[in-house]
Amino acid sequence: MNISFHIARRYFKSKKSTNIINLISKISVVGIMVSTMALIVVLSAFNGIEKIVVGLYTDFDTDLTIRSEKGKTFNQSFLDLDTLRNFEGVDGLSRALEEIVILRKGNKWVKAQMTGVDSSFLRMSHMENHLYEGDPSFNFEGLPVALFGVGLLQKLDTYVPRFANENSVLFNVPLREGKFRPGKNPLSTKHIYIGGSMNFNKEVNDEQVVVPFELANELLNYRGDISAVYLSVDPAYDNEDIKEALYKVLPKGFVVKTNFEKNELIFKTSKSERIIVIFILIFIFILSSFNLIASITMLYVEKRDNIKTLYSMGIDKEAMFKVFFYEGLLISFRGILLGILLGYTICVLQINYGFVKMPNSNGEFFPIALKWMDGLMIVVSALFLGVIASYLPSRYLFRKHDKIYFHQ
């Protein structure tokens, strides 16, 4: 085995720079290196994008949401909120009132989704990280204020003032028992000050306005009814596990959904794109391995006389097979090692210095996130394909021509 390895190493380090075999070997190394590097960089970029998507679509939609299975609302007395708040794995709780409202600012009339929540929601949704302008608060000098999606404010053609009490929007909220009758107003109206603008995702930005729970309750006059209960889960726990545990303590007629279930299409699409890219890059890796097959084949053709000489010295067929097999492994491993080093170097440089910026993102760097499971998958896949690309042509050549050298 050691003799075979040293023979292969000698072939690999041949000093005949003009030799076409050495040129093809170098091309094989470069091809495998680039393919491995591409796998690392592209998957790390997908991880970064996925991290941003998760933040955009799961911060506003909290980890778990409890709703009535049948009705639009339910009386909050049906749930033991203290038990839920202190439930193992639950990190925060907020009541929610949700309703479609009409907003008016001057001559602008816009439909919006009003969500009334407790102040704990601001922490649960990481509002301070998504605030475009203003303060992450429902209160300004004792006055209740609302947080608008940035797109919603643009539709209203208004702005976030320096002081919240300098600008307000008229809310037209439908009453549960409101009817269109002469002398009867089916809407509850109130001017609410603009406290800030939030930037999550397009849907939230264009449609959502968040107000304090007490203010929403006053406008809707629900008298103890709520639309949902929002829960955030401690990072040490799994959302699905907490969801299953909650079903054991919740009364019948309630349904629990995770943030991933509420945005199922987004995450399934992201995962499908990721799988497709992995297959494409592995296919490219396989194509680059054809240079390795060509290199082994041409090396075999050129070294036929050497094979006869080694055979006459007592080397058997299996030992000669190992010579060419190890030659292929040396090329593969060298390309894989260089690709791993180069790929992770590019990722680390992008994370720390941000050479590549995202288009139309106000100068934000393209996101990169490294996962050790991806690295392990890439290394195992590359090594497996490298071994296959080295083994098959070597075994085929000696099976096809074994009569010439070993059965004369």
Automatic annotation (TrEMBL):
* Residue ranges of domain MacB-like periplasmic core in the record: 27-246
What family does this chain come from, according to its entry?
Belongs to the ABC-4 integral membrane protein family. LolC/E subfamily.
Q: Name one GO biological process term.
A: lipoprotein localization to outer membrane
Under the heading InterPro entries, the entry gives:
ABC3_permease_C, Lipoprotein-release_system, MacB_PCD
Taxonomic lineage of the native organism = Bacteria, Pseudomonadati, Bacteroidota, Flavobacteriia, Flavobacteriales
**Pfam families the record matches:** FtsX, MacB_PCD
Put simply, this protein is called Lipoprotein-releasing system permease protein
Membrane topology type: Multi-pass membrane protein
According to the lineage, what is the superkingdom?
Bacteria
